[in-house]
Design brief:
With 322 residues, the protein is an alpha/beta fold. Helix content is 37%, strand content 16%. The protein has nine helices and 13 strands. It has helices at residues 14-26, 41-44, 60-68, 84-106, 152-166, 169-181, 189-200, 271-283, 299-316, and strands at 5-8, 32-36, 49-52, 111-113, 118-120, 136-139, 144-149, 204-206, 214-216, 243-244, 249-252, 258-265, 291-292. The strands form two sheets. It has a seven-stranded mixed β-sheet, sandwiched between helices. Strands 5, 9, 10, 11, 12 and 13 form a six-stranded mixed β-sheet that branches. β10 and β11 form a beta hairpin.
């Protein structure tokens, strides 16, 4: 049985349905699953099979995780996710226990998984052979388990390592000491994976490393090593310059090499840019003249955003204009 694509997400997000729609378009014969909750069931539509968290929860390892988990973060760590920092930190660890339960239940070995704010732009099956001899691929600057995962035994080992780390008071105190210095960060699943990889000496491949003229993008908002866009997104986020030939998306290395994106991580990207890329990849045709994709905010979108921000400022000022 071929490797499926697995997303996990809690709560509702406008972009989630777009990500699933694009993934299904580029991988029409692949089984795509969304492990989620009642709030995002409708996002799956006809593009993915929705698997409720509650059908996967309650196993011995997941219950043990719920018992030992502690949110550990620096005093200035802020992350504006649904239900706050503690819920988010619990989820980024817990999702791997839910994935493990799903793999065991369905008898799945190898699989693909990406952050739910990722556009899967190309056929994944034809890229699997690149990772023969590796146990998994990584993203997030080579820090997180993401992309191709070669076996459920690896996930089983990873979740056990998470339990071991949370059950080790000395190790957790080392994390607290680190975060007294790195006050804007938190102990998260990437840290746990780095420790697991170190202990087990895993053989992994950083998926943003070029292969066959392509990369699996860590994030548009991580431009280091690539040609940056001439404009920041909404005046804030520095991003890679993005190109299209009419359908496919490309970025350029600082050395001038153009690379096709197999996946495109859209963290920190606004809704209007999701819509812009979705139109290109679903409706365009490849092979045209190469041109840059604009990050400019549409005028109407900007007006609406500024009005909303103005109303929030009024509310925060207790109803007074400020």
């Amino acid at each position: 049985m071929s490797a499926p694509l697995i997303f996990t997400h809690y709560g509702y997000a406008d972009y989630l349905g777009r990500a699933l729609r694009v993934a299904k378009s580029s991988n029409p014969g692949m089984r795509i699953f969304l492990l989620g909750d009642s709030a995002n069931r409708r996002c799956a539509g006809s593009h993915a099979i929705h698997v409720p968290f509650e059908s996967l929860a309650g196993g011995a390892k997941e219950l043990e995780f719920q018992r030992v988990f502690r949110a550990i973060s620096g005093e200035r760590h802020r992350f504006n996710k649904l239900h706050g920092v503690d819920t988010w930190l619990r989820f980024v660890f817990r999702r791997w226990f839910l994935i493990e339960a799903f793999l065991e239940r369905e008898g799945i070995e190898a699989f693909w998984t990406f952050d739910s704010d990722t556009l899967v732009l190309q056929d994944l099956r034809s890229r699997e052979s690149r990772f023969e001899g590796y146990e998994a691929t990584t993203q997030c600057k080579d820090q997180c388990l993401n992309g191709w995962v070669g076996s459920r035994a690896l996930v089983r080992g990873y979740t056990q390592s998470i339990l071991d780390q949370f059950s080790d008071p000395e190790y957790l105190e080392l994390q607290r000491e680190r975060l007294r210095v790195e006050v804007g960060l938190a102990f998260n699943e990437m840290d746990a994976f780095a420790e697991f990889r170190r202990r087990e000496d895993l053989k992994t491949w950083h998926a943003q490393r070029p292969s066959n003229g392509e990369i699996f993008d860590d994030a548009l908002g991580i431009p280091r090593g690539f040609e940056p866009a001439g404009e920041r997104v909404m005046g804030r986020t520095l991003v890679k310059r993005l190109w299209t030939d009419g359908r496919d998306l490309f970025v350029k290395r600082n050395c001038g090499t153009m690379l096709r994106l197999v996946t495109c991580n859209m963290s920190w990207m606004p809704d209007f840019f999701w819509k812009r890329l979705e139109r290109i990849v679903l409706n365009g045709r490849p092979g045209g003249a190469m041109k840059a994709v604009s990050y400019a905010e549409p005028r109407f979108h900007r007006i609406v955003r500024l009005l909303r921000e103005g109303m929030w400022r009024v509310r925060l000022a207790g109803g007074r204009l400020c």
